Amino acid sequence: NIFSILGRDNNQTIYIGTRTGVRKSTNGGGSFTPVNNGIPANTFVYVLDMSYSGNYIAAGTSKGLYISSNNGTNWEPVSGIPSSDTVYSVKFAHYNTDGYEEVYYAGASGYALYKGNPVVAKITLIATFNARVNNIETVEETDQVSVVLTPQATDNLITQGYAYSTDRGVTWIQYNNGLPKTAFSGLAYTISGNNA
Which of 76, 102, 103, 170 has its CA 20 to 30 A from that of 58? Predict the structure, then answer.
C-alpha cells in the first residue's frame, strides 16, 4: 500500500510512504528503491513532507516521527514524541516574519499536536484536542496554522471539526458548529490579502 506521495519542483525525485517504509525514485517514478536507514523494519510510513528549503524531510510513521537531512539516505528519530505513537500528519511551515525559521507540526495518536525544529530533531507537545489531528495546514510566511480534528469512532462525530491558531500554535480556537455529521479529513486555504 502507498500511504503518501511527496515530490518537489518537477525534478524527477519522488518519495512514497508505504507499509514497508520510504521508497525513493529519481526517474519520475520509473523505479523505486528503499531509503529506510534509521527507520525500524516493518514500519508503516503514513505521511511525508519536505521543508520549504528542501533541506529536511519528515516521515510520520507507525513508530514515531523521523527526520532526514540528506534526501532520505538516513533518518533520525525525533525526540520528544514516544516511538510507540503513530504520527498521522506532518506539515512544515516557513516563517519569515521575524527572521527565517522552519518548523514543523506533527499530529499523533492520543489527540496530540507537536511542534519542532528540524535542525535539532526534537519536538514538543503544544496542544491536545478531543479528536485525532488528521490534517495540518499552514499559510506560508504567516503565523497561521490549522488542523482537522477527526474522532476515532464514528459515533462521536460531535468532536470533529477544525482548530485554528494565529500565533504558531500557542493558542487555539476550535470550530465545529454547522459542520456535517460525517467525518472529513481535508482542509484547504484561500488567501485574500492578509486573510486565509
Answer: 170
